[in-house]
């Protein structure tokens, strides 16, 4: 990266950060070069042909789908792939789900060298199993790995192994509406020594989790608290990458807003209180313009914002709508904008009845509507429809779910198993 680019990332104003070069920061593989020097280029990459499968003999009882709690139940098998600086990626193994063995000195335990992804598999009533846009998760995981000096890998090879794992445990995929199999690829540094630096050993593993709706209330609106005492990310930091280190600092602020009666933080940045993200989700706001049209706004990928797969999907659907490929149920003309938004703009729009809706997006929750924001001692109220969804988020959600589950044909849906 050039010196001018690094200076740009360190700017204190999100509006300054937005440019095509900054947007490419998390979308290109350029940062991957940090981890792919000449010595690494000779190491073995992930080899699907070497996969070993150890079947679980005592299969676990599967709980009723309706009683699933998000992130608490795991399938029979897991995928593991070791890596070393001497030989590269080792033998992939699908084996019974169970504990990992780590040395107390493992780097991940001391310096938080860990990354992860969140994906979903779906099974329809006929038994067809699909993944939703998994190629984007593989690219983002490589970018995250490079950011903290973990080894990168062949994303297509890892995806093929994930497909085999999901195929093996496909009976764990719930078929109730709103249910799916959550897939968690993870990589950790396992070097057996204390010291800050690129690790000489790592482990990539994948676990599967049958899940229902992320929030117990389904797609009902949630409340936010505009957090000004804490920050999720800063320019030049790691906010644009899916690292474990990004999440632990948000636990205390989340606990505190829960005690105030709100569901999630709305992360505000800088003295101007720029909107960045909602809890662990990307953020969208819909404003009514002076001519009566609507503007769908999301903060730009400025180095602080995570480039979410669902975020990209929402933007793509909205742009297609504005270009004539109408979303079912959305008759209004909309303009799609990636720009900085201050909390003062949201509050003013609400006071003038120009705020149409506000919602979060992410793999776990898909779309999460918002009905109020606690800000500077008062609540900013946000309109929602009779079903809790807004006039833009509702049609977007229906289209997304249709593409995810296969009821709407789309190349975003990658088939693993045909019935």
TrEMBL record:
Catalytic activity: L-leucine + 2-oxoglutarate = 4-methyl-2-oxopentanoate + L-glutamate; L-isoleucine + 2-oxoglutarate = (S)-3-methyl-2-oxopentanoate + L-glutamate; L-valine + 2-oxoglutarate = 3-methyl-2-oxobutanoate + L-glutamate
Superkingdom of this protein's organism: Eukaryota
Transferase as UniProt keyword: yes
InterPro entries: Aminotrans_IV (IPR001544), Aminotrans_IV_CS (IPR018300), Aminotransferase-like (IPR036038), B_amino_transII (IPR005786), BCAT-like_C (IPR043132), BCAT-like_N (IPR043131), BCAT_family (IPR033939)
PTM sites of type N6-(pyridoxal phosphate)lysine: 242
PANTHER family in the cross-refs: BRANCHED-CHAIN-AMINO-ACID AMINOTRANSFERASE, SUBGROUP IIII AMINOTRANSFERASE
Protein name: Branched-chain-amino-acid aminotransferase
Organism from which the protein derives: Crepidotus variabilis
Upper classification of the organism: Eukaryota, Fungi, Dikarya, Basidiomycota, Agaricomycotina
């Amino acid at each position: 990266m050039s010196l001018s680019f690094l200076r740009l990332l360190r700017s204190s104003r999100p509006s300054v950060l937005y440019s095509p070069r900054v947007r490419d920061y998390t979308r290109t593989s350029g940062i991957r070069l940090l981890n792919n020097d000449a010595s690494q280029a000779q190491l073995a990459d992930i080899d699907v042909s070497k996969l070993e499968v150890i079947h679980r003999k005592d299969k676990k009882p599967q709980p009723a789908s309706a009683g699933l709690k998000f992130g608490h139940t795991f399938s029979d098998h897991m995928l593991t792939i070791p890596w070393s600086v001497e030989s590269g990626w080792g033998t992939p193994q699908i084996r019974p789900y169970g504990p990992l063995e780590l040395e107390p000195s493992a780097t991940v335990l001391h310096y938080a060298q860990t990354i992860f992804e969140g994906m979903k598999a779906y099974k329809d009533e006929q038994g067809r199993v699909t993944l939703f846009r998994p190629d984007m998760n593989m690219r983002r995981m490589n970018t995250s790995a490079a950011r903290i000096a973990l080894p990168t890998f062949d994303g297509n090879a890892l995806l093929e192994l994930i497909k085999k794992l999901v195929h093996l445990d496909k009976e764990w995929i719930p078929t109730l509406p709103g249910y799916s199999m959550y897939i968690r690829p993870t990589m950790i540094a396992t070097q057996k020594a204390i010291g800050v630096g690129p690790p000489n050993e790592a482990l990539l593993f994948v676990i599967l989790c049958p899940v229902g709706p992320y929030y117990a209330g389904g797609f009902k609106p949630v409340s936010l608290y505009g957090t000004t005492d804490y920050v999720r990310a800063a320019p030049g930091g790691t906010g644009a990458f899916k690292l474990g280190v990004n999440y632990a600092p948000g636990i205390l602020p989340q606990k505190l807003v829960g005690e105030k009666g709100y569901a999630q933080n709305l992360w505000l940045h800088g003295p101007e209180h720029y909107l960045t993200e909602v809890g662990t989700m990307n953020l969208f706001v819909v404003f009514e313009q002076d001519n009566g049209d609507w503007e769908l706004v999301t903060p730009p990928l400025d180095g602080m914002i995570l480039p979410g797969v669902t975020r990209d999907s929402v933007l793509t659907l909205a742009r297609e709508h504005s270009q004539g490929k109408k979303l079912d149920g959305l008759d209004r003309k909309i303009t799609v904008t990636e720009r900085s938004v201050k909390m003062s703009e949201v509050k003013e729009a609400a006071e003038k009845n120009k705020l149409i809706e506000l919602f979060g997006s992410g793999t776990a929750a898909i779309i999460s509507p918002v009905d109020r924001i606690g800000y500077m001692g008062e609540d900013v109220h946000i309109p929602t429809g009779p079903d809790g969804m807004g006039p833009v988020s509702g049609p977007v959600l229906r289209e997304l779910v249709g593409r995810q589950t296969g009821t709407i044909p789309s190349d975003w849906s990658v088939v693993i198993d045909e019935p």
